[in-house]
Amino acid sequence: MHLSDNVSAAASAAPAADWIRRAPKAVLHDHLDGGLRPATIIELAHECGYTGLPTEEPAALGAWFRDAADSGSLERYLETFAHTCAVMQTREALFRVAAECAEDLAADGVVYAEIRYAPEQHLAAGLSLDEVVEAVNDGFREGERRTGGRITVGTLLTGMRHTDRSLEIAELTVAHRERGVAGFDIAGGEIGNPPSRHLPAFQHLKRHNCHFTIHAGEAVGAESIHEAVQVCGAERIGHGVRITDDIQVHEDGSATLGHLAAYVRDNRIALEVCPTSNLQTGAAKDYATHPIDLLRRLGFRITLNTDNRLVSGTTMSQEFQHMVDAFGYGPEVFEAFTVAAVEAAFLPLPERRRIIDEVIRPGYAAL
Ligand SMILES: O=c1[nH]cnc2c1ncn2[C@H]1C[C@H](O)[C@@H](CO)O1
Ligand SMILES: [Zn+2]
Asked: Pfam families from the entry (predicted)?
């Protein structure tokens, strides 16, 4: 097939920075423990007596995370989370971090967010799994209130690939589904921990008709995506960029999709693409050759995301800007990414339609 370009990449002038910030945005892939304000980490470290921070100057701490994570390896990227999780162990800390997350996203023009975190990583000071979930949800309700309702936030509960608590976390997801939890995710080091290790968790979620996404196709290639989609039943894929392993691009610009790539595209399985994070972990070489543009032109359901605002030193606006610089995207592409994200949100259909028709479409029209 030939690469189509239904949504023209550069139909209009490049959007200005102010346009990008004001444009309504939706983020489906953003980790709570990867997006703290540096100053908050330092204050929380003082409060809880954590002495392991590499520096206590906020700007230097922010730069430290970005640099330490910029190693070309997912495993090294993940090591930096020890510092954020260390200060997120009490109800007050979790509440504060969640409330600030909602405020920061809203200030960046995000109107809908699904924020994920692994409850099992917040038990060190004695909270129960239920208490962790309640603290985070209460913090998000407070953050939404502080922004005057400009943002709606749901959470995804993450099971860690290398531990054995995924079934418990899946049960927790089902238990809290009517109270702020939108779905489930699996994250952590991909190599040596295939998603099929967590089959009982996915079976539990399916028995209860619960939504889930899986990080796959980041450090491992197409076989990880195949397991996530066909063995585990993921509705969306976290990253998924290595689906390109199953796509052949020919010299004349045409492309041939393998059966897996065709299945993912034809079933509209959303890819939660996080370009800056991919550059840091080595899943992509640079913005200009990032597969997001190829996948978009081939008709995949593409959403644009931050992954970890602190650790990747990014925001939704900065991800938009990188796409403008690399591919010349105009407003139409960003509106399409945003609509795609809300269409793939773990929300009831009428609610997705309401956000698209009453917030996203009019928001872009008014810019
Ligand atoms: O991009 C990622 N791939 C795999 N795991 C990740 C990524 N970003 C964050 N995580 C891990 C580290 C966090 O502690 C955990 C839960 O948010 O999820
Ligand atoms: Zn992630």
From this structure: A_deaminase
Q: Which ligand has its closest atom nearest to the C-alpha of 307?
A: 2
Per residue in 84-113, pLDDT (tens digit) is: 999 999 999 999 999 999 999 999 999 999
Q: Is 208 annotated as a binding-site member?
A: no
Amino acid at 277: S
Question: Which atom of ligand 1 lies nearest, measured to the CA of 33?
Answer: 17
**Candidates 2.40.30.10, 3.20.20.140, 3.40.109.10, 3.20.20.210; correct CATH number of 17-37+89-365?**
3.20.20.140
Neighbours of 256 (CB within 10 A): 12
In this prediction the pTM is 0.96
Annotate 325-347 with three-state secondary structure.
HHHCCCHHHHHHHHHHHHHCCCC
| Atom 8 (ligand 1) nearest CA | 307
CA dist 4 and 200 (Å) reads: 40
